[in-house]
Give the backbone structure.
Amino acid sequence: MNNQPDHHTITAGGDHILVLGAGNFGTCLGHHLAEKGYRVTIWCRSKEVADAIQACHKNPKYLSTINLSKRLSATSMISAELLASVQVVVHATPLQTMRSVLQQLAPFWRRDLRLVCAAKGIEMGSLALPGRVVADELGSDAAHHATILSGPTFASEMIVHQPTAVTAASKDRATARRIQDLFHSEHFRVYTSDDPIGLEVAGALKNVVALAAGAAIGLGFQMNTRAGIITRGLAELTRFGVALGANPLTFNGLGGVGDLFLTCTSDKSRNFTVGFRIGRGEALAEVLAAVGVAEGVATAKAAYALAHQLGVDAPITAAVFDVLYRDKPIDQAVHQLMTRASKDEHNWRSPH
């Protein structure tokens, strides 16, 4: 396979790509693109991390055993000169910091730039999904051409070439195909979609369901319970998506059931791990201090408010919110879920 850049697709300096964020996924995506032959610059919030990547081609905090491509460089500065040299920007910082990062880009943004968003979550306060944050900070045209990249991916597996499949979704089909070509390789299969909202909803809420699945296993429940949480979690994701105008079929795809299954069944998932440790009786603050950022914790609060705003029936989200933010004992939350009124399985719409 020819892994060199397709200059009929990426033109006029487009062989240089900026990746925002040097966490697990940002580092992994940057390395992947560099392996394909592109020049990649990773923007790091920490100057120390940027300096370490520059000096020894290793990220000292994430995926630290991996020797990163020599085509990959790092910086802790966002400048006009940096933005002028790229055509594609990959955003891979946590969703709750996305707005502040895009504000640094906004003065240098050009109409021909294309944004790929790998952030997952719902912004606290505004209840905005990533696309709306992009529209607020970079304008409606940037949001229309933005691409959501999502699917069942653990960076630690992808970076060692374990076969992986994801979806690239954009309102603009041509852009989705362009990003597909950019990322696609023999070990990283990329499908396209015109439903970015569906991918955004699934990517955000699967982390909340993973908290619930982890807590259930931490409590000692076994496979029946986990399967029930995953399946009813998928129904909950779909109801949110339908309320926001997504295609219900998106939730049967890689960014829906694929990512949900992965996140709810592995201790490689931070959200599953946080839920598991809470289920074992540990305090949330102590768990987060040990595990690090788990997007589902903030998303649970935002999703709970969004469910009320949309009139969406979201019992798993409500149960996770009650445990995290109202100190409800987990056994009571489980009892509340199991004793809800019986209903039809395939009602995707709000009961209101």
The chain has a mean pLDDT of 93. The chain has two domains: 16-194, 198-338. The first helix runs from residue 24 to 35.
